[in-house]
Amino acid sequence: MTTLPLVIRPETLRDADAIERLHERAFGPGRFARTAFRLREDVTHLPNLSFTSLVGTLLVGSVRVSPARAGSHPLLVLGPLTVDPAFGSRGIGSALMRASLDAARADGHGLVILVGDAPYYARFGFRVLPPRKLTLPGPVDPGRFLALELREGALAEAGGSVVGGSR
């Protein structure tokens, strides 16, 4: 494995088109039908918690975080986490995750949820949610519905249907 001159930085407005092309290459047109996408639909992601990775001037990765709530309890939805397939298995996804989660902790957020591969996200502290603790606006494999407490007790406070947005 070679070392890449990788830069992790907050997402900017100028990144939007490159990120959309990256999502299209990585996830294809079926991404719009997924429950995780539907949760983020019409919700503006949080730029202070969303990061990109660049090799030179080439955008090779992105992580976005959006606000949501379960009842009256705010939480964050992480995703998509995307790395250009040509740059996979080089630690780019991990670097993006660390940047995003560190920023969320620093901002005082309590809970992050996502739909993803449990073995991959376990390295960051994510765990499968207890059955029926939270529900999403569509079907999801319960073994892929994950949460990370950034503040102790945040998961115990949340319950019910997750709705995208902060209101």
Could you explain how this protein is built, in words?
Helices cover 25% and strands 32% of the residues. With 167 residues, it is of the alpha+beta class. Strands 1, 2, 3, 4, 5, 6, 7, 8 and 9 form a nine-stranded mixed β-sheet that branches. Strand 4, helix 3 and strand 5 form a beta-alpha-beta unit. The chain is globular, with a radius of gyration of 15 Å. The protein starts with 5 loop residues before the first strand and ends with a strand.
Name a few traits of the molecule:
25% helix; alpha+beta; nine-stranded mixed beta sheet; 167 residues
Which helices and strands occur, and which strands form pairs?
Elements: E1 6-10, H1 16-27, H2 35-40, E2 51-55, E3 58-70, E4 73-83, H3 92-106, E5 111-115, H4 118-122, E6 127-128, E7 134-135, E8 145-149, H5 154-157, E9 160-164
Parallel strand pairs: 4-5, 7-9
Antiparallel strand pairs: 1-2, 2-3, 3-4, 3-9, 5-8, 6-8
Instruction: Tell me what portion of residues adopts beta-strand conformation.
Output: 25-35%
Tell how many strands the DSSP assignment holds: 9
Determine the structural class based on helices, strands and strand pairing: alpha+beta
Ranges where pLDDT stays below 50 over 5 or more residues in a row are none
Beginning-to-end CA distance, first to last residue: 45 Å
For the largest beta-sheet, the strand count, sense and barrel status come to: 9 strands, mixed
Query: What's the rounded overall pLDDT mean?
Result: 87
**What is the N-to-C succession of helices and strands?**
EHHEEEHEHEEEHE
How much helix is in the residues? 25-40%
| CA-based shape | globular
Number of helices: 5
Taking all Cα atoms into account, the compactness measure Rg is 15 Å
